[in-house]
UniProtKB/TrEMBL annotation:
Organism: Salix purpurea
Principal location listed in the UniProt entry: membrane
GO molecular function terms attached to this record: ATP binding; protein serine/threonine kinase activity
Keyword field contains NADP: no
Name the record gives this protein: non-specific serine/threonine protein kinase
Record PANTHER family: LEUCINE RICH REPEAT FAMILY PROTEIN, EXPRESSED (PTHR48053), RECEPTOR-LIKE PROTEIN KINASE 2 ISOFORM X2 (PTHR48053:SF165)
Membrane topology of this protein: Single-pass type I membrane protein
Residues engaged in binding ATP: K730
Region forming the signal peptide: 1-34
EC number: 2.7.11.1
Regions crossing the membrane: 646-667
Length: 796
């Protein structure tokens, strides 16, 4: 969705003064000394409604025959028009206007940028506004009006501009009487609580050029009568609850330039008649329920610059006629059911998003000849063929996502010509060959994801130093990890898992001081684990060295990884004790199984709660029994008991532990259930736009969904009703309010693309829950509150 369109606003520059513009009838030319006329009385009533102690307006004398000599009032030479200009210095302090029938404001009052200093009370809309029969401009936006638009507005036959947007408490329906404002040119009610359907009388507005009622509460269908607004140029009705189809008569709007209807509930097909609006430059119908195909008549829209049809239920193909739209710069039809091949020859394209459709065939070479193309997103389709060398011609390309297709061949070396390329995702394809050495030429590259292909060769010695995220997992890479890995000083996440890499981890990895996640699992690395890994200050999310050939002891420097959340060193040849890990307070997942560790397991709450499967197959490792009770060993060897006795002891102990654990989980579940029944009053805060209820979360807090435990809670994987997956941390005790509040305060203020987000939280008397992003690939992407406090200090 175009950011320029999303932020489109009708608000003018806010001046240091405001203007009262109205038509003054010819009565001002007559002598009437006994009292001021009706228009003058309106101005006096407006003055009296202001909450100000200044005497500047006291010069307005009700005994004058005309207001033309009043301070700030200027009449035209023929007396037909009057402009009342009051500088901001006229008022002693900012005030929320008590709008009455007389208030006529063209610009927002001079203190609009200091609204927090104004009277917070909402004030009624001017119900008697219809008395100002000569009113031309009525602009009341960004105030604190409340109530409904009075029906008397239909009496303003000369009204040209009506703008009252930004008044959140302005509600009710747009009255049918608005159709009587025959001279209306601009109707602006954006960001209000206007509800109901657009009245059919809207078709009487023969001079209307702009209708802007976006981010409101409109519902119902757009009336067919909209086709009678022959002068309409801009129709902004996005972010409402409009239903029904797009009226076919919209095709009669020959002057229409912008049609923004995104994020509604509009159904049916896109009418072919829309192709008759040949002045259109922007169409945004995304995020609706539209069906059918893209009309071929769109090929007649030669001035069309942006076509946004994302997130609908469109089918069929992209019509070849779309290539006639030579001015088209943005084409986005992602998240639909579009099939067929990709059209070519839209020579001015800057952004193309066809993701999440059913497109097939190869990517046309012509697309890679587009000099202005900055964004090419065709992920999750059924494309085949190769990435042509012509990609090197797209020198303006900034973002490239072709993942989730069936693309084969090699990554062309010409990709190194893309000097400003920032994001590459070619994952989940059938690519072969090596990572081209020329990729070092992508000097601004921050994101590189080519996982799940058939990439061979070694990791290049020279990668762009700007890289922050690298995922080359699930390929066929061989050789050792280059010592020049240390040059990637901006790197935050490195995933090289599921390859055939060997050798030792170079000590230079310490220079990757911003590294938060490192996954080298499922390779053939050998030697000792370098102590430098324990000296990386930012290593907080996950360290996975599993399924390798590492030997020796765990480096003593690992005790400094006190921010780390996930550690997996299983399936290696490591030995020694686990005491070095005893003080890692933020761990939520630890697996040390299938090594040669020995000695007593650290006697900490975290280690006591570890599943036996994460400790299994370690010779000589044992859990301490109670005081004066001999230790219960996890594996035989080095003890006087017979192998059979030891084995029986292990089995009995394991069974006892499992029974106790089952009883413990049942008791906790019963307590939790009882707590929910006892007190169902929940407090919930969300930092992201999510759609779920507390019940959706609580019913998934089962043992089957447990993915980790920590010193302060247990972590679950929860699938929301919309299919989205999040991680939920349930605090061990409802009394742990300190850790709970600390985590909320710290994580709630952090927003960074490389740091997992706290999505929100909820609590009642018995339960405290935290909601996080869930890391795909099966590991957690969060840690506890102390980790986040450290990150905050580092500016993360």
């Amino acid at each position: 969705m175009s950011a320029a369109l999303r932020n489109l606003s009708l608000s003018p520059t806010i001046f240091s003064s405001f203007t009262l513009l109205l038509s003054i009838s010819s009565l001002f030319l007559h002598s009437c000394y006994s009292s001021i006329d009706e228009q003058g009385q309106a101005l006096l009533a407006w003055r009296d409604s202001l909450n100000t102690s200044t005497g500047v307006l006291n010069s307005w004398n009700p005994l004058d025959s005309s207001p033309c000599k009043w301070f700030g009032v200027h009449c035209s030479s023929n007396g037909q028009r009057c402009r009342d200009k009051l500088e901001s210095s006229s008022f002693a302090r900012p005030t929320a206007f008590k709008f009455s029938a007389s208030q006529v404001v063209e610009e927002p009052y001079p203190f609009i940028n200091q609204s927090h200093r104004c009277d917070p009370e909402s004030v009624p809309s001017p119900s008697g506004i219809g008395n100002l029969s000569s009113l031309v401009y009525l602009t009341l936006f960004d105030n604190q009006l409340s109530g409904e638009i009075p029906r008397s507005i239909g009496s303003l036959s000369r009204l040209q501009i009506f703008r009252a947007g930004g008044n959140k408490n302005l509600n009710g329906e747009l009255p049918q009487e608005i159709g009587s404002c025959a001279n209306l040119v601009v109707l602006g009610l954006a960001e209000t609580s206007i509800s109901g359907s657009l009245p059919s009388s809207i078709g009487k507005l023969k001079r209307i050029q702009t209708i802007a009622i976006y981010t409101a509460l409109l519902s119902g269908a757009i009336p067919e009568e909209i086709g009678d607004c022959s002068e309409l140029q801009n129709l902004y009705l996005y972010q409402n609850s409009i239903s029904g189809p797009i009226p076919r008569r919209i095709g009669e709007l020959s002057k229409l330039q912008s049609l923004l209807l995104w994020q509604n509930s509009i159904v049916g097909a896109i009418p072919d008649e829309l192709g008759s609006c040949t002045e259109l430059t922007v169409i945004d119908l995304s995020d609706n329920l539209l069906t059918g195909s893209i009309p071929r008549s769109f090929g007649k829209l030669l001035k069309l610059e942006e076509l946004q049809l994302s997130v609908n239920q469109l089918t069929g193909t992209i019509p070849a006629e779309i290539t006639n739209c030579t001015a088209l710069s943005h084409l986005e039809v992602d998240n639909n059911g579009i099939s067929g091949e990709i059209p070519t020859e839209c020579e001015n394209l800057q952004a193309l998003d066809l993701s999440y459709n059913s497109l097939f065939g190869s990517i046309p070479k012509q697309i890679f000849g587009l000099q202005n193309l900055t964004k090419l997103l065709i992920l999750s389709n059924d494309l085949s063929g190769f990435i042509p060398p012509d990609i090197g011609n797209c020198t303006s390309l900034y973002r490239l996502r072709l993942n989730g297709n069936r693309l084969g061949g090699t990554i062309p070396s010409e990709i190194g010509n893309l000097k400003i390329l920032n994001f590459i995702d070619l994952s989940n394809n059938l690519l072969v060959g090596g990572i081209p050495l020329s990729i070092s030429g992508c000097q601004n590259l921050e994101f590189l994801d080519i996982h799940s292909n058939g990439i061979t060769g070694s990791v290049p010695d020279s990668l762009p130093r700007s890289l922050q995220y690298v995922d080359v997992s699930d390929n066929r890479l061989t050789g050792s990890l280059t010592h020049r890995i240390g040059s990637l000083t901006e790197l935050t996440k490195l995933n090289l898992a599921k390859n055939q890499l060997s050798g030792e981890i170079p000590a230079e990895i310490l220079s990757c001081s911003k590294l938060q996640l490192l996954n080298l699992g499922d390779n053939g690395f050998s030697g000792e684990i370098p102590k430098e890994l324990g000296q990386i200050p930012a290593l907080e999310i996950s360290l996975n060295l599993s399924c390798n050939q590492f030997s020796g002891k765990i480096p003593s420097h690992f005790s400094d990884l006190n921010k780390l959340g996930v550690l997996d060193i299983s399936h290696n040849k490591l030995e020694g004790s686990l005491d070095v890990l005893a003080n890692l307070q933020n761990l939520v997942f630890l697996n040390v199984s299938f090594n040669d560790f020995s000695g007593e397991l650290p006697n900490t709450p975290f280690f006591r709660k570890l599943p036996l499967s994460d400790l299994a197959s370690n010779q000589g490792l044992y859990i301490a029994g109670g005081v004066g009770t001999p230790g219960v060993h996890l594996a035989p060897g080095g003890h006087t008991r017979s192998a059979m006795e030891l084995l029986m002891s292990v089995l009995l102990s394991a069974s006892a532990v499992l029974v106790l654990l089952a009883i413990y989980m049942l008791v906790r579940a019963r307590i939790g259930s009882h707590g929910l029944m006892e007190d169902d009053t929940w407090e919930m805060t969300l930092y992201q736009k999510l759609e779920f209820s507390v019940d959706d979360i609580v019913k998934n807090l089962t043992s089957a969904n447990v993915i980790g435990t920590g010193s302060s809670g247990v972590v679950y994987r929860v699938i929301l009703p919309n299919g989205e997956m999040i991680a939920v941390k349930k605090m061990w005790s409802s009394e742990e309010s300190g850790a709970f509040n600390s985590e909320i305060q710290t994580l709630g203020s952090i927003r960074h693309k490389n740091i997992v987000r706290l999505l929100g939280w909820c609590s009642n008397k018995n339960l405290k829950l935290l909601f996080y992003d869930y890391l795909p690939h099966g590991k957690l992407e969060f840690t506890s509150s102390r980790c986040w406090q450290g990150r905050s200090r580092m500016g993360g």
